[in-house]
# Entry
Amino acid sequence: MKQRTKIICKLLVMALILVLIHYTAKFMIFWAAGHGETRFAKVLLILGADVNGREIEGETPLMYAGTNGYIDTVQLLIDRGADVEAVSNNDETALDRAARVGQVETIRTLIARGANPNRRSQQGITPLMIAASSGETKAVEALITSGARINGQEEGGFTPLFFAAWNGHADVVSLLINRGADVRIKDDSGKTVVDWAREMRQTQVIALLEHLGK
# Structure
């Protein structure tokens, strides 16, 4: 009887340890992804971490790795089944977040692995609009090269060019125009990008547009 009790106790302890390992892996995968600890992330996934697990705001491990530019970790997570189109509670994908902070290699990797460069949020916002709004010139270039629509409009009629001009990013405005952005497009209020640049007093953008004869 005592021997049987000892065996049961050992089994219960082992089960408890396994449960603790599983829950530890479940939460630690976000830390590993966000810090580029690829080998540790691999171990955690073996131990049962959910590659598509969610944090409080709906972020996935892939979003953490991509935002911080850890390409090896991004590749591992996608190889293990990470959803490249997963959307956070803020209606952002891993590609949206990478576009916002200018992680060019992440952008290229995600699109090469199936992310849609023209995915629209509920308000019609695309990764290119996000990059343009943030003034991330290299990210804008990478997205355009990867097939992002340069004259796409969100629900209010703004194109990536509008977002760049609104925020005073003259270098992005120049790039977009050189790549085919249409300055004649009007938003839902009937205003052009030139109108908004003047209204927002974005002097560098205004000077650039006047120099280009727009």
Remarks:
- Residues 11-23 have pLDDT under 50 and may be disordered.
- The first helix runs from residue 2 to 34.
- The chain is about 60% helix and 0% strand.
